[in-house]
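During the no-cost extension, the postdoctoral fellow (Dr. R.K.) reprocessed legacy sequence entries with the updated structure-token encoder. One reprocessed record is reproduced below for audit purposes.
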Amino acid sequence: MNKSVHAVELPARLRDAAERLAEMEGVSVDDWIAFAVAQKVGSSEAVAAFLKHKATGATGRDLLYYLDRVPNAAPMPGDELPEGWKQGR
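Re-encoded structure tokens follow.
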């Protein structure tokens, strides 16, 4: 496996947590961080592949099919547009 060095600045709380968790797992902080990054990369790539697969063959007409079924009702509390929001931004 090719390795390269990347200096990463972490907030103190995040660094402390990584050190604590690495120690609990009996691995170096570098190995723990590499594993954490590998997990994030893997999950991000899996989500992207899933969404690409689900969108295969989708059209604007498909989207309109669902948008036409949205009820014309006031938004639920907390779902309102921000004050001063203008359509077309």
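The first helix runs from residue 12 to 25. The mean pLDDT is 91. The remaining legacy entries will be reprocessed before the final report is submitted.
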